Amino acid sequence: METRRFEQFDLYLNGKMSSEERSYFEAELSSDSDLYSTFEIYRTIEVAMREKEKHLINDHALLTSLHTLNERYFKPEMEQPDARIIRFDPGKLARIFSWIAAAIAVIFISYSVLFPSKNDVKVLATSYYNENFLQLSQTMGNADDSLQSGIAAYNRKDYNKALIYFESIYNRHPESSEAKKYAGLTYLAKGDYTHALEAFEELAQMQNLYGNPGLFFKAITLLMRDKSGDRQSAKQIMQKLAIENTEGSRESKEWLKNF
Length: 259
Fold this sequence. Notes:
Layout: H1 2-13, H2 19-31, H3 33-53, H4 59-74, H5 90-114, H6 121-133, H7 145-155, H8 159-172, H9 177-190, H10 193-205, H11 214-225, H12 230-242, H13 249-255
Helix pairs in contact: 2-3, 3-4, 3-5, 6-11, 7-8, 8-9, 9-10, 10-11, 11-12, 12-13
């Protein structure tokens, strides 16, 4: 029953009930004080959690919301002489507390899945990508205009055209680490993790490069894809990078603390 009720609460709060369902549910709330109290607690916690994840309130504000709930619904009778007193028999009180506990558990589990911690390694990898690779820097004076055209297409989010440029350059100049790197980033921007991983692996195998980013970009791709086994593979790469003075070693040392 608790699960059905929480589904109703969620549908109501998110405006997903039909007019008939909404009217029936509101009638239930009006006639059942126990249900109304449980709904108010659920709504208060849900809103507080949502706002917390949006960084609009802090932990203290969340605790204040919970304290308000305690004051509203569980303060002893003697401390609120003017309030309308709802007397609960032990069975009803136990049932309400079980609903509240289950509601809090459902909300916390949902938000831990939908809004992972900012220190989650997938969040760290995605943030790194967003901060560094949503736009590529134009290289002034580069002799290969095709590379600049590819970068321009990438920055316009015309990823298919950008790939044509980058792959064409690499086919003509297999030593071009820039073309391979940009091709990998373009696949990553498209969400084509398989081809991105292949490109970054090829980049990682290139010799005589100063600060080859191939392995680090491969680890980022694995974390963003986040399939079974990807985190472990990314962790192994980062453990290797952490002991080397190469691109991604500093980030790897920090991110390894969050696995």
